[in-house]
Design brief:
327 residues; alpha/beta; 11 helices; 39% helix; binds ligand PBG
Length: 327
C-alpha cells in the first residue's frame, strides 16, 4: 500500500456512494431472529417494564405480532414461554398442552412462512428458577438431560422448525439429538447456546421470563466470563454432539469469543444481543443520550463484523424497518 502523501485513506471516504460501495459488512433482515415471550390467557399484550418495546403476549396477540414481523421480512422468531404454574421439575416445559406447543401450533397456522425456533430450558418453568432439576443445593446434570430431551421432542411434535437448548447442562446437545433422531426428527436442526456466560446482562430477561433463581446463581452451569479457552471447548463439544449452529451469548462484551469461533469453526454462528444490551440502549435513548437508529445499526453491524451469521435481537422489527428505509 502506498504511504502518505501518495496514499490517502480519506480518498475513499469522501462520498456516501463510495462509502456504501466499499462497505465490508452490512447486517441484513435475513440475519435476524426475533425473541418473543408468550404467556397463558387471551388478548394480552403487556409491556415488560425492564424491556421497553417488548411485550408479554398471549398466543392470539403473539400471532399478530409475528405476522407484522414477517411482513417486515423477518424470517425467524425464538419463543420463550411462561407457564400457568411452576413446579420443582419444570413440568410446564414438556407438557404437550403447555404454552410453547400451543403457541407453535398457532404460529405455524397463522404465519406459516415464519421459522419457529423454540428455546429449550427449564428455568422459566421451575419454582426455584434454576435451569435444571435441583438435588440438595446443586442442579443435577444427568437427571436434567432427560427432561430437556422430552421438552425438545414435545416442541418438535408441535411443529417447531429448530430447537435451541439454552440450559448449559453437559451432554444436552447429544441427548436431544439422539431423542429427536429416534423419533423421526433427524432433519430438525439444533442451535445450541454453546458459549453461554453467567452474565449480568440477562437481568432484564429474568423479569421478562420471571425466572430469577430463588437461591444461589447460575455460575455452576453457565460459563465464567473471564474464560475464552473454555468457550472454545464448549463450542467444540457441542459441534461434536451434533449442534448445527452454535451460539455465543451475550454478544457485545463477547465479540472476541465470536471472532475466535469464526476463525476456528466452519459451522454457522449465532450471537445473542441479550436483554441487558437492549435495555441499556433503550434507557439511554429515552434520556436523549443516544440516537436509537444509529446506535442499533452500529451494534448489529459490529456483531456481524465479528463473525455472526445469525443475530438474535429484540431490536429486530425496528432494525428491519431502518434497513429497508436506508436502501
Ligand atoms: C434461559 C435463557 C436466558 C436467556 C435466554 N435463555 C436467561 C438466563 O440464562 O438466565 C437470556 C436472554 C436475554 O437476556 O435476553 N436459560
Amino acid at each position: 500500500m502506498a504511504m502518505f502523501p501518495t496514499g490517502r485513506m480519506r480518498r475513499l471516504r469522501q462520498t456516501a456512494n463510495l462509502r456504501k460501495m466499499l462497505r465490508e459488512t452490512m447486517p441484513s433482515v435475513d440475519d435476524f431472529v426475533f425473541p418473543v415471550f408468550v404467556v397463558p390467557g387471551k388478548g394480552i399484550k403487556k409491556e415488560i417494564s425492564s424491556m421497553p418495546g417488548c411485550f408479554h403476549h398471549s398466543v392470539d396477540t403473539l400471532t399478530e405480532e409475528l405476522k407484522e414481523a414477517a411482513s417486515l421480512g423477518i424470517r425467524a422468531a425464538i419463543l420463550f414461554g411462561l407457564p400457568e404454574s411452576k413446579d420443582e421439575t419444570g413440568s410446564g416445559a414438556y407438557d404437550e398442552k403447555g404454552i410453547i406447543p400451543t403457541a407453535v401450533g398457532a404460529i405455524k397456522k397463522a404465519v406459516p412462512e415464519l421459522t419457529v425456533i423454540t428455546d429449550v430450558c427449564l428455568c422459566e418453568y421451575t419454582s426455584h428458577g434454576h435451569c435444571g432439576v435441583v438435588q440438595g443445593n446443586t442442579v443435577d446434570n444427568d437427571k436434567t438431560l432427560e427432561l430437556l430431551s422430552r421438552a425438545a421432542l414435545v416442541y418438535a411434535k408441535a411443529g417447531a422448525d429448530m430447537i435451541a437448548p439454552s440450559d448449559m447442562m453437559d451432554g444436552r446437545v447429544g441427548s436431544i439429538r439422539k431423542t429427536l433422531d429416534e423419533n423421526g426428527f433427524s432433519n430438525l436442526p439444533i442451535m445450541s447456546y454453546a458459549a453461554k456466560y453467567a452474565s449480568a446482562f440477562y437481568g432484564p430477561f429474568r423479569e421478562a421470563a420471571q425466572s430469577a433463581p430463588q437461591f444461589g446463581d447460575r455460575r455452576s452451569y453457565q460459563m465464567d466470563p473471564p474464560n475464552w479457552r473454555e468457550a472454545m471447548r464448549e463450542m467444540e463439544e457441542d459441534i461434536e454432539e451434533g449442534a448445527d449452529i452454535i451460539m455465543v451469548k451475550p454478544a457485545l462484551a463477547y465479540l472476541d469469543i465470536l471472532q475466535r469461533a469464526r476463525q476456528a469453526f466452519s459451522c454457522p454462528l449465532a450471537a445473542y444481543n441479550v436483554s441487558g444490551e437492549y435495555s441499556m440502549v433503550k434507557a439511554a435513548v429515552k434520556n436523549g443520550w443516544l440516537d436509537e437508529k444509529q446506535i442499533v445499526l452500529e451494534i448489529l453491524t459490529a456483531i456481524k463484523r465479528a463473525g455472526a451469521d445469525i443475530i438474535l435481537t429484540y431490536h429486530a422489527k425496528d432494525a428491519a424497518r431502518w434497513l429497508k428505509s436506508s436502501q
